[in-house]
Amino acid sequence: MTATLTSTTETAYFTHLKCKECGAEYEPQAIHVCEYCFGPLEVKYDLERLAAAVTRSTIEAGPKSIWRYRPFLPVTSAEPIDVGTGMTPLIKAQRLARRLGLKHLYIKNDAVNMPTLSFKDRVVSVALTRARELGFTTVSCASTGNLANSTAAIAAHAGLDCCVFIPADLEAGKVLGTLIYGPTVMAVEGNYDQVNRLCSEVANTHGWGFVNINLRPYYSEGSKTLGYEVIEQLGWQLPDHIVAPLASGSLFTKIYKGFREFVAVGLVADKPVRCSGAQAVGCSPIAQAYAEGRDFVAPVKPNTIAKSIAIGNPADGVYALEIARKTNGAIAAATDEEIVAGIKLLAETEGIFTETAGGTTIAVLKKLVESGKIDPEEVTVVYITGNGLKTQEAVQNDIGQPLRIEPKLASFERALERSRTLERLDWQPVLV
């Protein structure tokens, strides 16, 4: 255990790392696991100093990015890596709400987050800023796709060398969306959990900064901004209920941590927030533990189209379980068919094209409403974490095809009549 903790600078409010299991404290270096009990480490802050220094006005005067919340993030840099990440739209989803029978439904749309169209841009911006502060010149990650995109893009912007590791069967859009930034890409013949184990060995032997391994305590803090932004965008109020996807469980726990931090420093009035999580049936270790009343998560072998959340051995699964239970939330899972239907439902009602993780979240939202686990009067926020253009394979056989016509008015009229007859169902590629 490290007895002497690093002093905070004039502009930094994080103080140390603390084990979530045994409470051992460490200096804020590139470590992520407790040397005594192997528990995960988490960043701690001086909340009294934060409460004295930060107001709603100082936040609102900040940049239109996650860095408006810089005092709540574990960096010391006066100029963090800012590529315009964050402050994504919070949309009142009136048409989807009517379809589901809800009155106050909002979509937090990170499908349009910058620069790579997923929430991972938040965590990577924080991790690479901290990596630079700690002296790393090469950064890396184990990824199911979105994280590889973000790490490669933001490393390119920051001038850092980059090597990413992905499962070899990843969607083509996510592979291309990584290669374009010029990193070294290792496509591993195995699932994400096998990729992650390999990366732990590489991190120990090459001394690189792995955003979701030795930099994980800093990286994960970026997800808190999804909680901060929702509070600010709701007019400095907490929602009643949130629904978010569960992969490792980190995103879910950090949104909750963000809510509690803003309450602790007096930026928002306290009230109960119910936290519900979504998994795919083909990789649902946390949902299974929730359904069976277990307080541990048994690893599973993933088999689902929702590859971005297909983590069979989730590092923060038990903490996600704990939050869902203590907030009176729920955790449920959706089949691949329900995930595709969820993607289409969100697109057709709100004009948002999400990837499979978002389809999972919408499908589970629908299930929770139908089972009476979401009150129609609750202010409910659903987190959409990635863009559908990256996972087109998941829906390409379920969305019909265009009506092919000749460049003549008569051909158009025949096609229009045909489309109305078919009511956009079972379209076939025919020349009219």
TrEMBL record:
Q: From the record, what ranges are coiled-coil? A: none
Q: Name one GO molecular function term.
A: L-serine ammonia-lyase activity
Q: Which residues carry this modification: N6-(pyridoxal phosphate)lysine?
A: K120
Keyword terms of this UniProt record: Lyase, Pyridoxal phosphate
Q: Which GO terms describe its biological process?
A: isoleucine biosynthetic process; L-serine catabolic process; L-threonine catabolic process; threonine biosynthetic process
Enumerate the cofactors the protein uses: pyridoxal 5'-phosphate
Q: Which domain of life is it from?
A: Bacteria
- Tryptophan synthase beta chain-like PALP domain: which residues? 84-386
Q: Which SUPFAM superfamilies match?
A: Tryptophan synthase beta subunit-like PLP-dependent enzymes
Name the Enzyme Commission number(s) assigned to this protein.
Answer: 4.2.3.1
What is the top EC class of this enzyme, as a single word? lyase
The Swiss-Prot or TrEMBL record describes its family as follows: Belongs to the threonine synthase family.
Task: Spell out the protein name for this chain.
Answer: Threonine synthase
Q: Which organism is it from?
A: Thermosynechococcus vestitus (strain NIES-2133 / IAM M-273 / BP-1)
Q: Gene encoding this chain?
A: thrC
